Amino acid sequence: MNQEPSLEAIVYVSASTLPMTAASLEDLLDQARRFNAESGVTGALIYSDGSFMQYFEGPPAAMGPTYDRIRASTRHSRIVEMLNEPIAARWFPSWTMALANPPVSELLAISTATWVVENARVRGRRSNSPGMAMLLNFWDRRRRQD
User: Fold this and answer.
1) Phi and psi (nearest 5°) for 10?
2) Fewer Cβ atoms within 10 A, N terminus or C terminus of the chain?
3) 47: nearest Cα among 101, 109, 10, 113
């Protein structure tokens, strides 16, 4: 019997409606961490020169309300969904929300990569799309630098 995965992941990019200062990013991060801790969502946010990219993961019951809250935010516009699918396990289990401010070129490279795994047999498994592989590599390098 094929059991439904118990986790989902969403990746999107968007444009900031106003320039984000260090204080406004910290406020955004505090709010996201509180909400995510309560709902069981984890993930990572990248911001660079007016552009956001976010990966978040969690149980299906929490993902809908989280994504609705994100889409309703006035902090950004032009949301483009890159990935929205079941996953077998969390990639960022201990991060209620991480934040990084890479150079624009690095955010552009990650956000324009291919995010959909073409072969339906590997959906929900740890078979990375090029975009996911780049995102994981980016965060691995960030952790080693800290």
Assistant:
1) -135, 140
2) N
3) 101
Could you tell me the pLDDT band of residue 133, with boundaries at 50, 70 and 90?
confident
Q: Which domain holds residue 45?
A: 7-145
Q: Is residue 100 in a domain? A: yes
- Owner of token pair 């150079």: 103
pLDDT at 38: 95
CATH number at 50 reads: 3.30.70.100
In tens, the pLDDT along 22-78 reads 999 999 999 999 999 999 999 999 999 999 999 999 999 999 999 999 999 999 999
Domain count within the chain: 1
Q: Is residue 46 part of a domain?
A: yes
Most distant CA atoms of the chain, gap in Å: 50
